[in-house]
């Protein structure tokens, strides 16, 4: 296994979690051994260090023994399969929250460098439903991006899945401006997300459909703007966006005008059909949250019925009835390939909310255009979103 200034296969402890580190000319990323969580990630361009991913404030605390590994080191982005809480048993399968992929220990297969690319390859043998998952995290010199691929093999049956990217926002009301590629409709949770009797509070009206992030109904009957965050301090809320499927790629972006950078993610809308918005702003007062998990938003690209779990995603529901699949049927003869790209780049003065993200130069570069008309370009290989299982 080759080593260079860019890579070492040795584990390092980062925010109390044993992790692998991989580095390109512009990005440094860490992936935890337990749960395979991606954070911290530093995007470094011309001396500007951007660290957008959230790490839970309890990462170095002693927690209750029944705390799942997912929650102990909660951070950044991780692959969930099945996605959601999974409280309901499905065909004798009982999964932990967000599945084995988000809780079990991953095994290193390789950490290699080739043609200005660094690739970390991890593998997980699943036990609840037999199969294996290959995780590959790749960095490319000169690209302010992290390329992520998960390949699920030798597994059969219905399954929900998704990415769980969590961002930390500056402690300033409305500091981040959220936008997405076109979506069919959005919807708040069918029932309240949190129970005040258990120390949890939510602000959004349940079961509310919307066409714009700018006007979503509150439980009080008033309206709020989901495109600006942090907001609604003291509440924990979830909404889902049904992605329009007929586009070359779908995107989600958060612009931080005062901090002068934008984070964005790209996906194949034929694979990841929805975007789940988890707005965590101090609304959980039970352990380990204790009202201190604030200014965090999960922008989670999924094929799932909200965050309920596999049993609920397999059943007909309001999202699948609208034509947006909330699960897939896997075949042992055909691997499931989930490709995903995250990136973060500095922005010029006056660059506000992202209005469009366009592929240019035959898909080797993307152009981000803001509502103010300011634009930036950055190298991103959008063809990766349709790529087959990587060999390195």
Gyration radius (Cα, Å) is 20 Å
Helix coverage percent: under 10%
Number of strands: 29
- The oligomeric status of these chains comes to single chain
Low-confidence stretches: 1-5
Number of helices: 2
Chain-averaged pLDDT: 95
**Count of distinct structural domains:** 1
Overall geometry comes to: globular
Strand arrangement within the widest β-sheet reads: 7-8-9-10-26-22-21-14-19
Beta-strand content estimate: 35-45%
- First-to-last CA distance: 12 Å
Global structural class: mainly beta
User: In this structure, how is the largest beta sheet organized?
Assistant: 9 strands, antiparallel
Walkthrough of the structure:
The protein has 392 residues and is an all-beta fold. It has one domain. It has two helices and 29 strands. The protein has helices at 69-72, 310-314; strands spanning 12-14, 17-23, 27-32, 38-45, 48-50, 79-80, 107-114, 117-126, 131-140, 145-153, 157-159, 161-163, 165-168, 176-180, 183-188, 209-210, 216-217, 223-224, 228-229, 235-243, 250-256, 261-267, 274-281, 296-303, 328-330, 336-346, 354-360, 365-370, 375-379. The strands form six sheets. It has a nine-stranded antiparallel sheet, with no helix packed on it. Strand 4 and strand 5 (48-50) form a beta hairpin. The longest helix is centred in the C-terminal third of the chain and has 5 residues, at 310-314. The radius of gyration is 20 Å and the shape is globular. The chain starts with 11 loop residues before the first strand and ends in a 13-residue tail after the last strand.
